[in-house]
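Task: encode each sequence below as C-alpha cells.

Item 1
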Amino acid sequence: MCGRYSITTAPEALARLFGTVGPIPNLPPRYNLAPTQDAPVVRRGRDGLRLTLVRWGLIPSWSKGPDARFAMINARADTLAAKPAYRNAFRDRRCLVPADGFYEWQAVPGGGKQPMRIVRSDREPFAFAGIWERWSPGPDEPAIDSFAIVTTDANDRLRSIHDRMPVVLDPADWERWIAGPAEAVADLLRPAPEDAFVAYPVSARVGNVRNDDAELLAEAAPAA
C-alpha cells in the first residue's frame, strides 16, 4: 500500500537524473502528495523520456470517469497482467514515479497508528514502478492522464510497518520497465533489498492532506 509520498527534488534535477527531454513542468516541493493530485511521472515520448504531471489514481479508459471513491492509487503486482483495469496499461503504458520518501501507518500497542516515513538509506530520490492510462470524456474535451503505483509484498525490514510496499526500481532497470515487453519485466516486481530503506516516525499532521510543508519530514517522538 502507498497512500502518501513526497517528492521534494527540484524538477530540473529530476530531468537530469532520468535523462528526460522537452519542457520541465513547474512543480514545487511536495511533502505530502495525496491521491487525485498531480504528480511528476517519467514516460516514453516520441523523442525520448518525458517528465510530465499526471493525476494520481488510475482511471481506466473504459470507466465513466474520475471518482475519488474508487481511485486506483495502487496496482498489485500479482494482478497487473490479468485485471481488466490494469492489463492494457501494464502491457503498453508503464512509467516511473519519482519520489524521495513515502508514508505508512504502523499499528501501535494500545490502539492507534504511528505515521512512519520510509526513505532510502542514502536519502537519495528513487523511482516507483507505475502504470498510466488516458481517459477521454468526449471528442471536444481534454483527456485525463492518470497513474497507479505498483505494489508488492513488503520486505522483512518493513513488514512490521505494513505488509505491502511500492515496487522500487533499480536505476539499471528503469529503461527495461518503461520500454521492455510486459513478459520480460515480471522479475522487477519484487520487494526492495533489506538494507535499501529505513523508516522513522513523523508527525500525525501528515494524515491531513492540507498539510504539505517541510516539517512533515522531521523525525517525531513515537506515539505513546
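Item 2
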Amino acid sequence: MADFDFEQFRQDVLEGVSNAADAVSSAAKGAGDEVKRFRHFNEVGRDLFVSGSTTSHGGNLSECDGSTIWITKSGTMLGHLMPGDIVDVGWEFSVRDTPASMELVVHRAIYHALAELDAQAQRPFAPRAVIHAHTKYTVLRSLVEDTITPQDSEGRMLLGETVPVLAVEPAVASEKVAEALATHVREGGRIAVIKGHGPFAIADTLEEAYRLISCLEYSSELATHLDMLKKM
C-alpha cells in the first residue's frame, strides 16, 4: 500500500479553501454590485417621476458595461421601482429581451455607437447610462421647433448652443429612432429629443444623464415663458 501523501493532501485542502473563499468573495461582490445598481436606478427613477419628468409608467433607464445592458422592464413605474423591475440583457438581440422596456432597441443602438467610438479611439468601452423621459416642456417645444435653444447660462454650458429635435416616425421604440440616435451619438451628441415623444440623454452615470434631462426641461420651460412674455 502506497504511503499517504500528507503534503499533497494539505495542498489540496488549502487550494479547496482558497477556491471556496474566492467563490464566496465573487458572489458577495456580485450581490453588492446588484444592490448598488438597484439603488441608483431606484433613486433616479423616483426623481424623474417626482419632478414630473415622466408619466406614471413612462420613461426608461439603462446602464451598460460593454457586454451586458441593465434596463428597466416594460411598463414599470419609475417612481416605485422594485428589484425585479431591472433586467439584464445581452449585447445582441435574444429571447432575454422579452421583459425589457420596448425602447431597448434604441438603448442598444446607442451603446453600439458608443462602442464604435471607443474602438476608433483605441480605448476600452467605458460604462455608460441612458435615460429616456417624457418631459412636458421639452416635448411641447419639440412639436413646434427643429431645435431647442437654451436661453439660460447653465443650459448653454451643459447642453451646448442647441439640442436637436429628431422628427422620426414611428417615434416609439422603432429601428428608425435607434438609427437616428446612433448617428447623433457618432457625431458626438449626448442628448436629443424625439419629436412628440421626449429626450434621450447619454452620460457616464444615471445621475449625469438625469442632469442633462433636467437641465433641458428647465431651459425648455424658460423658453416657453419667454415666448409668452414677448407676446404680451
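Check on item 2: The helical segments are 6-50, 104-120, 136-142, 153-159, 175-186, 206-230. The chain has one domain: 6-230.
End of task.
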